[in-house]
Amino acid sequence: MAIPDSPFPRPVRKPPLPCESVNILLLQLKRIGDLILTTPAIATLRRNFPDARITLVVSRECADLLPGISNVDRILLARRNLSDLALFLAVAREKFDYCIDFTRNDRSAFLSFLSGARKRITSRRTRARSSVRARVYSDVIKLSMRDMHTIDYNLALLGPVGIRDASRALRLELPQTAGEKLTALLRDSKISKPYVIFHPGSARLEKFWEPQRWADIIDHARSNSRISAVLTGGASKPEKEHLRQIKSKLQQSAVDLSGKTDLLTLAALIDQACLLVTVDSAPMHLAAATHTPQVILFGPTNPFHWRPLESPALILHGESASPLTEFSDIRPRLPMRQVSTEAVIGAMDSLLSPQATTRTS
Question: Measured between alpha carbons, how far is 150 from 155 in angstroms, rounded to an integer?
């Protein structure tokens, strides 16, 4: 929603006293991975403001993940349709002290304005994109996501509320129902051995790796009789077709669980896996949150901004025969085909030690 081309009045409110409960609004209207990478900032806010009332606004695409998000008192969905009128009214009725905008688009700027918060915080990229939109905010921080990991960027936005000490640890709480669904799924699929998950799909077709290469690395994993191979994927037509092509080239069968898990059951499945092999997509962040070892194939996106920071991960990008050990904010967009089958198999073998394969449900 566009912001009218006129200055916005600043709310005239006294700052809360230290003993008062603070009312905080957080705006994260991006994708699932972005929400997961915001959880360290949410946890840091809760630790610094234990009595605060924290409201989180997220996009409708993240709805399935919400039972796993802790440290908030209320979550509101932005649906990008007429039902958002109720969201706008809910935000406008509150008396927020702080509003932190992790999104930086017109809709989040409008919600920031409606919050009436004394401190409305975003980064300087908003000013660069729209001088009108920037007038909504009281604090425009000199940050650039291009220069930082996404977690560090989100944590840095907490600076204007007096927070400096922060943890990068991702926070995702799996509800009991996810574990129960996983138990039934493993039983029905007859998975009794340690398993490796292969998640080839993504919402972006440019992240697809060649089907024959996926089949080769899956067959390699299946050559170890102690390991089961599990395929997961989304419900979109391109992902289904990609999986169909991969399965048609397999020499040994794999258990196909694509389309059989909701988001938190997939997280539980990843939590119990001995390894995840995936492209840069939401399962990468789920594995990072559950500390599951993973091999990640990057192509058009820069791992500097999105890679796991505190969990076992080997990252392949371009023609390098070995996983990356150094990361730079300046890195070219590379086609996925440059990642070799041999590099992926080598990374898999280094993580599939006898000790690693003891991770089972």
Answer: 9
Lowest mean pLDDT among 89-103, 301-315, 345-359: 345-359
- Whether the domain at 23-161 and the domain at 176-358 fall into the same CATH topology: yes
What are the extents of the domains in the chain? Answer: 23-161, 176-358
For 28, counting Cβ atoms within 10 Å of its Cβ (0-12 exposed, 13-18 middle, 19+ buried), the class is buried
Question: What mean pLDDT do residues 53-81 have?
Answer: 96
**Could you tell me the CATH superfamily of domain 176-358?**
Glycogen Phosphorylase B; (3.40.50.2000)
Per residue in 211-250, pLDDT tens?
999 999 999 999 988 899 999 999 899 999 999 999 999 9
What is the SS3 assignment for 145?
helix
CATH of domain 23-161: 3.40.50.2000
pTM: 0.89
Choose among 314, 359, 322: nearest CA to 340: 322
